[in-house]
Amino acid sequence: MKNNIIILVVALIAVGSWFLLRPLPSVDDVTTEEVGDPSADPVTKKRKTNHRRTFLETPAVMRAALGSADASAATNSVSTNAPVATLPGVIPDEYIMSFYSEADRDEFIRIAKSMGAEIFGSMKLGNSIRLKADEETLRKLKSEAPMSVDFTNNREMNNPELPILDPEAPQGTYNVFGNGVLAWMGIGDNSDWGRGVKVAVLDSGINMHSALAKANIVRLDLVGGNGLDPSTTGAHGTSVASLIAGNNEFMRGVSPAADILGIRVAGENGQGDLFTVAQGIITAVDSGANIINVSMGTRSDSYLLRDAVNYAAEHGVLVVAATGNDSSYGVSFPAGYESVVAVPAVDAAGRHMYFSNRGEAVDIAGPGLGVNAAGVGDTMDSFSGTSAASPLISGAIAAIMSETPGLIAADALAILIYYSDDAGKPGPDEELGAGLPNMRRVMERDTKGIYDIAVNTPYLTTIEPGGDVELVVTLQNRGTENISRVELNVNIDDARYSTFFQNIVVSQSVNENFRIPASSLNAAGNIAVTADATIVGATDTYPNNNSMRINVFFEPKKAE
After folding, report:
1. Would residue 301 show up in a list of annotated catalytic residues for this protein?
2. CB neighbourhood size of 320 (10 A)
3. Which of 26, 39, 152, 310 is deepest in the core (most CB within 10 A)?
4. First to last CA, the chain
């Protein structure tokens, strides 16, 4: 009996030792839930960010997004199928690694340095490091250092390339904003907007500039060098900051009283990397930011960037990001994450700019063509792109927070979206999201007795060469009272149409479709459209938006 007990104890000790000392499973040994179709374009859909990975979970979406070489490199195995530098945007010999514990991370760093590897940074999120090492050193680290939980290539993350502006739009000429942004957004006296709200600007740094002389700016540098020296920081970040908090005779930001936390995460050329941007997000949250503006992007999903965005959301901090200027379907990251506000660009006529990325992730559009902003030295520049649109939305959210003390950023965003102006395709769409910001509506939302029906620019839904054309005319209730009855009169060349709408609630859009026969489209290549709306039984508070007159361009029928 005694011998049996001894045998049992020995067996239990052996099993326990195996359990404690067994190798952690590789990425292929762990079952995870895929989000969406892993074979689809990884940047076309948002990812849910409320799911927190445990240290054993494999970032399956990341593997689908980064490709087989990244996937095979996970948990310390090194890809030998192809040089990692051939992958788009990969920084040669640079990796992001996360560890189960701080102790494992520190021990890995010690061993890595002894082997001649470089550690460019570390952070508490995921006990992560940024490592530079050749493949031979990585193989040695695999056998001698603590095992990483997550492993991927570090990648470039850039300010969106400024678009080459084509002056001809599909339906006429694009309209620049110049110094008219605030009026376009419905902003009057905003001198106190943003007070008590801290907006972090993750960018190439913020130069000294007269437009920002009155702003309260704290500068941090995660890149290296002197972030306070205008010669070492980028004009891009200065332009972005000025659209939020600028205030001089040439331009004024949306929230000039906001506190700005300038975190330099990119060099003078606007090029940064995933690790440093993720580190910037964590730094901004820990420094008390309410809103984080990221006018930067990458086409690659990243577990660390995703976790940094999650960290911000969990602490009530809202990340606002540019969708990118690639003129493509699918927004850049971090704009593609569920909790991030994805901002595309429009011109002064409210039209989606051809270069602005589109997709299901898009939330609300901002001005992005020829916007006056702080430039190089102490000059003023004409700033274009989704990089300009994003800080204007960040500034609008900050303004709402400051005007309603105690309001969190997510609730301020909800108000901005609810009182946005429908534009483009009726309802939320992949080009403009909820529509265009209207700060007049936001600030008057508690004022009773405002009746306002607005006619949107008619939307061309179909056009077939030589065939019929379909237009959609949309009305929106932009007041503070429900509207019982509206009459709409539309003229398309010489044809007149009338219709009525009943019971339109606040912010609701209604529309009417008109199919124009091909027989009327064979002459000049355009048709004149006018639309007039009238509230029945009440006086319109803002009648200037009751009518719309435009020429709609199309491809005329070719002679046979």
Report:
1. no
2. 31
3. 152
4. 104
